[in-house]
UniProtKB/TrEMBL annotation:
Leading EC class: transferase
Cellular component annotations (GO), alphabetically ordered: cytosol
Protein name: Molybdopterin molybdenumtransferase
Stated family: Belongs to the MoeA family.
Reactions it catalyzes: adenylyl-molybdopterin + molybdate = Mo-molybdopterin + AMP + H(+)
Span of domain MoaB/Mog: 175-312
Keyword Magnesium: yes
Protein task: Catalyzes the insertion of molybdate into adenylated molybdopterin with the concomitant release of AMP.
Protein's pathway: Cofactor biosynthesis; molybdopterin biosynthesis
A single GO molecular function term of this UniProt record: molybdopterin molybdotransferase activity
Length: 392
């Protein structure tokens, strides 16, 4: 198989994947999830012309008074009686204006003596300190499109639009398998030749940013039958992600095990560095991603494939990571025949690539807060060059 460009591999991965079933959940459970339908406002916001300040509702043309204070309007009190000429109404923030009033005299600018009210400052224009009916949104307006993510602001909007529940997909279940005879669980002793398995905790940490349920299937030895059995146990998940054993060595058994378990491989080997040996396919209803074992390669491929896939099956409109344009503060060498995803950090004067770009260099990776995207065949770059970055 020839090396597949990253964008093509992402598109093929998405094409393999159906959106998960839809459920309607209380809005508090929808945080971070994606709407599967447009949602429209069930009410006007504000429901009436409301005061934005504490003070007095008046006719602006009657400035500076005097007025007779004849009524009071507080939030939650409903419609108010009409104000006759020369009358004012005591009013509080969020309360409806009485018909006839068109501006709010804030109480700091008012002098009140019993029922008698006068204004002590500047002219008022009609509409001053008034939030007109439906000025935020009108009933039936589309508030949020299908595929929008429900962050805190979108939750506020949906609730004010009258929604207590929203339609989203169910949370994906994501199974993680770590392969390698050398691996031991985090914190376990590492006598000669053994290595703490960092990939599963790293993937779980990445996935913690998404609404999903992670199931860690532990460490699987480099043994075909053990790997086939582990894939069998994991196949009820929506996504199975393995790390290690993805390359071409004698102990790299993930691909044959996947096929023996009944999986259909869609692609293997991507034109990227790190991450070349990535593979993807389907195993029954589960989507399968075989990530390389090197911790940096696993991290970068998870960022570019696993998280986007989880977002895609969850109904995200924009499942791919956002990129932006930035200026280099350090020089970069030319790239080879694969796209480079260089670990880097955003210094005050521009982007600086971390010292080691080795795909096993975790200390350098931990200093990075972005990736620099450098297409295959890019010439050397000097400080000041504009580059594409992917914030981490
Ligand atoms: N002859 C070739 N050799 C290699 C090629 C190639 O094209 N031809 N590709 C290289 C590239 S690129 C990568 S990336 C690695 C990926 O290999 P595997 O996916 O088969 O990974 P392993 O060999 O199992 O492990 C690589 C490395 O990572 C360590 N590892 C594995 N799992 C974990 C874990 N859970 N936590 C921490 N560290 C882990 C493992 O001990 C190895 O050191 O292949 C190159 N070889
Ligand atoms: O492609 Mo590998 O992930 O460079 O080390």
């Amino acid at each position: 198989m020839s090396l597949l460009p990253v964008e093509e591999a992402q598109a093929r991965l998405f094409a393999l994947a159906d959106r998960l079933p839809v459920e309607t959940v209380p809005i508090a459970q929808a945080v971070g999830r994606w709407l599967v339908q447009d949602i429209a406002a069930l009410r006007d916001q504000p429901w009436a012309d409301l005061s934005a300040m504490d003070g007095y509702a008046v006719r602006a043309t009657e400035m500076p008074g005097p007025w007779r204070v004849t009524a009071e309007s507080a939030a939650g009190t409903g419609f108010q009686p009409t104000l006759a000429p020369g009358e004012a109404s005591r009013i509080f923030t969020g309360a409806p204006l009485p018909p006839g009033a068109d501006a709010i005299l804030i109480q700091e600018n008012a002098t009140r003596d019993g029922d008698r009210l006068t204004a002590s400052a500047d002219p008022l224009t009609p509409g001053r300190h008034v939030r007109p009916t439906a000025s935020d949104f009108a009933q039936n307006a589309i508030l949020l499109d299908a595929g929008s993510r429900l962050g805190p602001a979108q939750i506020a909007l949906a609730v004010l639009g009258g929604h207590g529940t929203v339609p989203v997909t169910r949370r994906p279940r994501i199974a993680i398998l770590s392969t390698g005879n050398e691996l031991v669980p985090p914190g376990a002793p590492t006598p000669a030749g053994l290595l703490p398995s960092s990939n599963a905790p790293m993937l779980a940490a990445l996935l913690a940013a998404l609404p999903c349920d992670v199931i860690d299937f532990g460490i699987v030895p480099d043994d075909l039958d053990a790997m086939v059995a582990a894939l069998g146990r994991a196949r009820s998940a929506d996504i199975i992600v393995s790390t290690g054993g993805a390359s071409v060595g004698d102990h790299d058994l993930v691909r044959p095990a996947f096929v023996q378990a009944g999986g259909t491989l869609d692609f293997w080997k991507i034109r990227m560095r790190p991450g070349k040996p990535l593979m993807a396919g389907r195993l029954g209803n589960a989507l399968f991603l075989g990530l390389p074992g090197n911790p940096v390669s696993a991290f970068v491929t998870a960022t570019l494939f696993l998280l986007p896939l989880a977002r895609h099956i969850s109904g995200a409109r924009d499942p791919l990571p956002l990129t932006s344009d930035a200026m280099l503060a350090s020089a970069l060498p030319q790239t080879g025949d694969r796209d480079d995803y260089l670990r880097a950090w955003r210094a005050p004067d521009g982007i600086v690539s971390v010292t080691s770009q080795d795909s096993a260099a975790t200390a350098a990776m931990a200093k990075a807060d972005c990736l620099i995207l450098r297409p295959a065949g890019s010439p050397p770059a000097t400080p000041g060059t504009r580059v594409t970055i992917l914030p981490l």
